[in-house]
Design brief:
- By secondary structure, the protein is mainly α.
- It is about 70% helix and about 5% strand.
- It is built from eight helices and four strands; from the N terminus they run αββαααααααββ.
- Strands 1-2 form a two-stranded antiparallel sheet. It has a two-stranded antiparallel sheet with strand order 3-4.
- Strand 3 and strand 4 form a beta hairpin.
- Helix 5 packs antiparallel against helix 8.
- It is elongated, with a radius of gyration of 23 Å.
């Protein structure tokens, strides 16, 4: 386990006051895999949410105002404009954001390693833990096979997502 996390675990509220009494064994913030999972998900959201919001805002800015004006002239209300103009024009942004978020999901190893160490609970045992442990064992054959499989799975996911986001070769 990382040195900083160990220090936090050892020193987290050594003395905690509750109703005027000093407790000698306070609850540990990082105790249990459930909390580790929550910390991991929270750190992923904290790290990527701002970036994703910027991409969504860029997608919204790229929708021409004249399209909204034409829809309003045709008698569409705000809700109809949202479903008929905004959502269809955000499909390319959706594609980019989902693919980038998928790639960023595989880059959360540092946070998982800091929270849970080399061999965490099964619920947060990431692919990077597997690669790291295979690297220590010098199992290059397993690592290369897993990397090829990983690339194929991501490629298939991107192809399926592209098929869902396009119709007859054109973006929806």
């Amino acid at each position: 386990m990382s040195g900083n996390v160990k220090i936090m675990k050892q020193n987290y509220f050594k003395i905690k006051r509750k109703k005027g009494k000093i407790r000698k064994n306070p609850e540990n913030l990082f105790h249990g895999w459930e909390r580790n999972f929550v910390i991991l998900v929270g750190s992923f959201l904290w790290k990527n949410l701002g970036y994703d919001i910027l991409l969504w805002m860029a997608g919204l800015v790229m929708i021409p105002h004249s399209v909204y004006e034409a829809a309003m002239m045709d008698g569409a209300g705000k809700i109809r404009c949202f479903f008929s103009v905004t959502l269809p024009n955000l499909v390319p942004s959706f594609f980019v954001i989902v693919v980038l978020s998928l790639m960023n999901a595989f880059k959360i190893f540092r946070e998982a390693y800091l929270v849970a160490g080399d061999y965490p609970h099964e619920s947060i045992y990431l692919m990077q833990h597997l690669y790291n442990n295979w690297f220590r064992e010098l199992s290059i054959d397993k690592m290369s096979a897993a990397a090829v499989f990983h690339a194929i799975v991501i490629g298939v996911f991107v192809i399926i997502l592209r098929k869902l986001c396009t119709k007859d070769g054109e973006v929806l």
